[in-house]
Amino acid sequence: MCNMRVAALMVGVCVTAHAAETMRIAVGPEVGEVSLSGKALSCGDDVDDAEFVALQQDALVLRKKGQALWLDDAALPVEAIRCRSANDGPMRVNGVNVQGDVVVMRGKAQLVVVNVLPLESYLQGVLGSEMPKTFPIEALKAQAVAARTYALNKKLEQYGQPFHLGSSVISQVYKGLEADDPRTREAIDQTRGQVLTWQLQPIEAYFHASCGGHTESGLDALGRDLPYLKSVPCPCSKLATSHWTLKVAPKELHPVAGGKASGLQVQGRSPTGRVRRVQVGARSVDAVSFRERLGYMRLKSLDFEVTSEAKDGWVLKGHGFGHGAGLCQWGSRLLADTGKDYRAILEHYYPGTELQVLYE
Ligand SMILES: [Zn+2]
Question: Is residue 224 part of a domain?
Answer without folding.
Answer: no
